[in-house]
Amino acid sequence: MASPRRPPGELDRRILALIEREGRPLSGHMLAEMLRAEGRHVAVSLVFRSLRKLCDQGALHKLLSARGYVRAPSDHGVYLCCTGCGAVGVVVDERPFGAIGRGAGEKSFRVRRAFVEVAGLCAPCSRREHR
Question: Is the dihedral of CA 65, 81, 9, 111 positive or negative?
Answer without folding.
Answer: negative
